[in-house]
Design brief:
This protein has 2 domains: about 130 residues, 3-Layer(aba) Sandwich (Rossmann fold); about 260 residues, Dihydrodipicolinate Reductase, domain 2, CATH 3.30.360. The strands form 3 sheets. Strands 7, 8, 9, 12, 13, 14, 15, 16, 17 and 18 form a 10-stranded mixed β-sheet that branches. A 6-stranded parallel β-sheet has the order 3-2-1-4-5-6. By secondary structure, the protein is α/β, with parallel strands linked by helices. Helix 1 packs across helix 2, helix 6 packs antiparallel against helix 12 and helix 8 packs across helix 9. The chain is globular. It starts with 8 loop residues before the first strand and ends in a 16-residue tail after the last strand. It contains 12 helices and 18 strands. The structure holds NADPH dihydro-nicotinamide-adenine-dinucleotide phosphate. GO terms for molecular function: glucose-6-phosphate dehydrogenase activity; NADP binding. Belongs to the glucose-6-phosphate dehydrogenase family. Its EC number is 1.1.1.49. This is Glucose-6-phosphate 1-dehydrogenase.
Length: about 475
Amino acid sequence: MTSQSTVRTLLILGASGDLTGRLLLPGLARLAATGRAAGLRLVGAGSDPWTPEQWRERVHESFAAASASAGPEGKEALQSLEKETVYHQLDVTADGALAALLAALDGPTAVYFALPPRISQLACEVLQPEQVPAGTRLVMEKPFGSSEESARSLNQTLVRLVPEDHIHRVDHFLGKATVLNILGLRFANNFLEPVWDRHHVEKVEIIFDEDLALEGRARYYDNAGALRDMIQSHLLQIMALMAIEPPATIGERDLRDAISTVLRASSVPLPHSGSTRRARYTAGAVGGKEVPDYAQEEGVDGGRGTETLAEIRVNIDNWRWKGVPFILRSGKALGVKRKEAVVTFRPVPHLPQGFTGVDAPNQLRIGFGPDTLAFDIDVNGPGNIFSLGRVTLDAELSASELLPYGEVLEGVLAGDPLLSVRGDTAEECWRIVEPVLRAWQQDEVPLEEYDAGSAGPAGWPGSAAGH
Ligand code: NDP
């Protein structure tokens, strides 16, 4: 498959950074190796005084895995990208520096801000609208702002420079395959829609439990915590996809309107001591590997009270979902990796007398990465036909051949903002979690503890005591 991208040049600001080396360049490589970045020019920029060879070497290293598995055409595409790529040293916050670079590039250009968030903001603030060539796309990483107010102010800075549909607020969770699997399941199957509401659904859980601990990311994570890192962005987006009304088209306007509408109806009920929980891991072992107490991890300020496990209950106050709890949870250093959305249905109104054996409700489980689908139902088991048994119907869903950042870049290069977060939605997500962050800061909700490698604090869903 070969396709010409709308974007002619991909400019990565933050060439020496972690995101660029570990995720962006490998994502781009897989995309290019499948012929989906034909005609693209890659430009790196950063504050390091790198020679063009040093940058090319970095690109080469990051392309290695994709190159090894590519066919002859894919290898050629990667070599051509590597050969043509150039590097520019600049301080993006210096007046006129980024403007001069943009003027010198072959447009249309996608500018990927792989920079610390504060630097990205400053770089946009020093740009003037007339310095941004027509057709330029701005690609912003998470976190997008740190509050509703700061997200709004960043939005205002950006829309001064380019139209909203040229701004890509990246959420790499919104990979094309995962999103389309949820939408396909919900809106291409008539049997689901009539039961997808408050009358039939008891609760919806969106869980992202990781077995990974800090993995050297203290500098970022200790200032963020699980609520900001995972729930404020990714899990609220997944929740919205599970809860939206059927859109008329899977186009960026209809889909993003539907997401925005459902988020506007969402909030975390008071008191937060009843609707939220937070915890931090202590020393333990995950998969046989020793994990130190979070507070003792290098680079962590133990007094800051950063949570490594967070859970919030979101209410969606609309006709379809009134009264159905949406429980969003994410944590680190847990014993069991679990990444899924689970819809728990209400029990049948009356089980005919004579049947036995039903002790759990129907559940629909949508797993993320790898994308899977499972449906737990009760049917007559073998032996005594009056004794019902649980059967799980399951399937693996089509996986993307791209890495998550390949999917992000595919949308950016095609000039399609469908899978990026719209400005108003970014503000809504902060509006939903900000009261919780404040309550936690004021210690209205205790910071619990759990051993690394366990299932979380006693009494939490998922922990031994919680079942
Ligand atoms: P790093 O700190 O690793 O890299 C930041 C980059 O910005 C470095 O290349 C740095 O160059 C460059 N830089 C800093 N100041 C300037 C400046 N004034 N002018 C030009 N370049 C500058 O950060 P990450 O790569 O980890 O993160 C980048 C963004 O991606 C952040 O918004 C982060 O939240 C987001 N993100 C990161 C993920 C990850 O796994 N790393 C995952 C998801 C999102 P130098 O060192 O030479 O100053």
